Fold:
Amino acid sequence: MLQKTITLKKNTVLKVKGPVSFTLEKGTIRVFGFEAKPPFKHVIPSYKSIPIVACEDSCLNMALGEGANASIIENDTVCKWENIVKKVLEFKKPLTIMVIGTVDSGKSSLTTLIANMAVNMGFKTSIIDADIGQSDIGPPTFVSLGVLDRQVVSLSEIKPAMYSFIGTTTPYRVIDKVIMSILKLLTKALSLGSQVIVINTDGWFKGRKAVEAKLQTILHIKPHVVFIIRKDSCIGEADLLYNYLNMFNVNVIVIEAPKNIKERSINERKSIRESLYSKYFYNARVVSLNLKNIVFMNLSVLGGRFLSKEEKDVLKDVLGLNPNIKIVHATMVDGNLIAIIKGGAVVIDSNVLRRLRETYGHVRLKVLSEDWEKGLIVSLLNEKFDEVGIGYVEKIDFEKDFIKVRTNYEGKINGLIAGNIKLMYDEKTGLVREWGKWSL
Structure:
């Protein structure tokens, strides 16, 4: 690790790429609107880069890890951003601002800057983090609301005040749920008296479908100001959305993305999500819930009409199962016949399909093996119908009517909402890992 002392003249901008830890020894600096004085300390991880603006002559002691660097630059984007944001924050309140851009374009940085400048100007400020794949405020798969009571260097410092579960890390196919969640949290933020509300959107901004998704979001949310971050990889999309919005009475501002921004690989993004899962499952315990005493939403296996014992015996004959195989649960839902078995495998041949049609008509058969549900991510609901935490399923026992859920939420659980991500605890690392997706 390289130790380095750096002196900065007033108004100088130092671009730092992690992994770096530094201590401010003298002067005053500004990081995304956050004003810091000695003995301020900060750690920049390997997947981030930040601009440090010297408010006066300043001195920093730095420890640079492998691949890190720090260099003084001229005309950095952040200074241009500050000037634009300052003018926007003079608009009438309450003021809703939406930030749009592709992955690694600086959306979180701009969101942080706007929020910090608003707080510094004395406005009650909230952030809606709708980047469900790379969330900063709440756990992945959630849209989260954070209320600032001070300036922050990173959005991850903000404690979520309210969640809204989406259940997946990709917005494609669930944009309606994302919009509804933003609206719900926007209503909450306004009810709390927020004067400035910043909405950080997801990084899906490649192709016309992505542009249309952002257009739909703006249509329903009706933000007062839309920032579009124009990056080389999405110039066409940024220009197209800008042109669309200019056809309407939308206050849209296009700004350029920072140069040489740190881009994260797919594995790095997955690793960041897993560190967040691990944070929200720290000291988690397994709780056992009676299936008859809770509401379980968004899971077809628990929907429709459950087959009786006699009907399951008939199904067993239709499927030609040997005596060692047991159907522990079966349901008819939306034209699907879903059966959960234990004790062996099912062979679906032409005879089975023929008997299936003769007995049940035109249905789609789906056979699940025991433990199919292990790791399924869920949102937890309390008696007030509020989403209060995150969990994942350890076991559903249909014979004894109970479900085991791992969570660190300690209150009473009245309901669960299923998502399509599967999680598992890695004993070697102590981290909660993503290990698959579920769709039924």
